[in-house]
Design brief:
Blueprint: E1 4-8, H1 12-24, E2 28-32, H2 35-45, E3 50-54, H3 62-70, E4 77-82, H4 86-94, E5 99-103, H5 107-130, E6 136-139, E7 142-145, E8 150-153, E9 159-161, H6 164-175, H7 183-191, H8 201-212, E10 223-226, E11 230-233, E12 237-239
Parallel strand pairs: 1-2, 1-3, 3-4, 4-5
Antiparallel strand pairs: 6-7, 6-12, 7-8, 8-9, 10-11
């Protein structure tokens, strides 16, 4: 079945371009121009397979809408950002976006990013099916609900819902405890592609996961930085 993509952008020309181009690539594409129209679409049709979300929008901007979506769903989100604004890209990843692409963009480049994110999501679904017998994974002081994509602290019962990319990152570490994972391995697992030169997205995502776990890069209890090599999960892992 063709993947459904929702474009949220106030530039009508870009919406029409993406609707036409992505439809030719086999996707089912819908486009809206702001958060009000986006919420109306979601109310009527439910969540699509992927959302392309512009940062600069009238009313609630893309960051606010991303946060709203993340409170309700782990649907993959690719942010459309200003070409030279690293801040937009970092903020988007911090609040739960799965990837970003700068405007103006090459449609073929965007299509490659879409395929990579959807491939990662499908791979994650296959992994979830493979571990269906392990509905929960214990690691350190945390319990991961593999079906709800939620972590819960065993003592405080504090819980956090994970975005699709955060769940993929944590699952990568849980599958390979005490193994060093380099940046390309992490990027493939969370974005479906190699890490780009000087890309800060992986650092942002690792920082976000560490915050969820109450961990720190300086005094790590869960995820250690192996300088020049990558990162490793340094606590025992058990399946329920």
């Amino acid at each position: 079945m063709s993947a459904k993509i929702l474009v949220v952008d106030d530039d009508q020309e870009i919406c029409e371009l993406l609707e036409e181009y992505l439809a030719k690539q086999g996707y089912v594409v819908s486009a809206v121009n702001d958060g009000i129209q986006m919420n109306a679409y979601l109310e009527q049709h439910g969540f699509p397979d992927l959302i392309l979300l512009d940062v600069m929008l009238p009313g609630d901007d893309g960051f606010a809408l991303c946060q709203q979506i993340r409170r309700r769903s782990s649907v993959p989100i690719i942010m459309l950002t200003a070409v030279s604004d690293d801040t937009d890209q970092i903020i988007g990843l911090e609040i739960g976006a799965d990837d970003y692409i700068a405007k103006p963009f090459n449609p073929r480049h965007l299509t490659a990013r879409i395929k990579a994110v959807l491939r990662r999501v499908n791979s994650g679904a296959d992994e979830a099916a493979n571990i269906a017998s392990a509905k929960a994974i214990m690691f350190g002081d945390w319990r991961l609900d593999t079906l709800a994509h939620r972590i819960t602290h065993l003592d405080t019962q504090q819980s956090h819902d994970l975005s699709g990319s955060d769940f993929a990152l944590l699952m990568l570490f849980l599958k390979r405890p005490n193994q060093v994972l380099d940046r390309d391995t992490i990027s493939f697992a969370t974005r479906g592609r190699e890490a780009l030169p000087f890309e800060r997205g992986i650092d942002v995502q690792l920082s976000r996961l560490r915050q969820r776990l109450g961990d720190s890069a300086k005094y790590p209890h869960y995820i250690k930085t192996m300088r020049g090599n990558g990162y490793l999960l340094c606590v025992p892992v058990n399946h329920e």
